[in-house]
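re the bet — no i am not wrong, look at it urself. input seq straight from the record:
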Amino acid sequence: MIKQISWDEILFIWSTKLWPNRKSAIETNSAMCYLEGFDMKNMQTPPTFLGYFKENNIVGVNSGHGCANNNYRSRGLWVDPNYRNQGIGTSLLLATIDQAIKEQSEFIWSFPRYSSRNTYKSAGFTITGDWLPSETSEQNAYCIKKLV
């Protein structure tokens, strides 16, 4: 079951499981823009934090927030290794897409790791860039799903 979770709940998972060696601060939103650059307006929209629960335990998370120019960022997808390949990541992405639609965004985008590319593809995203290194992974690429 997917439900909204708190900043503290997702921050714990992000800092200990998804990005344990990250040097920059983990914040509720990202100023990163689709394909290039940064816009501090992205930091001003209310984020949505989602958790996937099994037996009252969070086994997956993702978040999303609106960005400048009427688009939506999906960020921080993580699924417990013991629960992978069960559709949890795809379900979290679909719930994030639903939130982007509710917020009337034109498209949703992300910057996933290479290892999660198939999960994004199964949720309808298209990889739109080269695989690049980032602070948290050796290979990330931009991906997008148009909503209108």
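see?? The chain has three helices and seven strands. told u. also The domain at 2-146 is CATH 3.40.630.30 (Aminopeptidase). so pay up
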